[in-house]
Amino acid sequence: MWPVIMPLLRTLRPKQWAKNVFVFAALVFDHKLADWRFLTVTIAAFVVLCFLSSSVYILNDLADIEKDRQHPKKRNRPIASGALPIPIAYTALAVLAPGSLIAAFALGTTFGYIALAYFVSNVLYSFWLKHVVLVDVMVLASGFLLRAAGGAELIGSVISPWLYICVSLLALFIGFGKRRGELLIAQNGGSTRKVLDHYSLSFVDQLINLVASATIVAYSFYTFSAENLPANHSMMLTIPFVLYALFRYLYLIHIKGEGGAPDELVFVDRPLQLSFALWALSVVLVLYLNPVG
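Now predict its structure.
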């Protein structure tokens, strides 16, 4: 049993569960973090999204099994390498996908439909949209927006449009960062993703710079224009952490030659981890120790 459990856990990609923290956005920014009812339901939503996203990873690995076997890194994935038998992978998918969706609808009807939209968009991505240039990244970005929208729906929050814009831009930043890492692998003949033929490093770098600039502007406007923020505009104190995190990533890929996406580099780069931690701490302190304007 143990030789199967470990490969299955690797296939679930628990490191990627960190992306589901976007479901907490409404809870934090709508000043409801201290409400145990909302906190409990949001934690439950986080767990549901973790298992739902894991079912998507299994689906992707099953759909790309032959291509992954030709990839220098992905060939070591449990399904591609044979460490996880295909029938067990299909069984896990058959349990996790419907089980997660049923749990999502149990939490709330609208949240269930949002979770369903997330799953359907990823199915379309796996079999079609990942081959469509630019649309592939936009679909990935929509997943982050759906997470934030789902969290807001569960606790009855109306988030500032600025926050949705910031989430979308950050998601695009992550998505184009992923494509950049894949392009670097492709240069060494290690990628089989056909959509990369429509990208180039210079093109992706331009998109990353464009999205990074837009993210800075949007987040800066958010910190002093959103209605549910402190009247003294103290949220602006969090801007330097966002600036540093974006600049640090650009430094890592252009100067240090790192090829990973932001969500991958944050697991290995201490300064990035520190900047995110300080940003989160400063946001909580600003929101919960200051009067709302």
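The chain has a mean pLDDT of 89.
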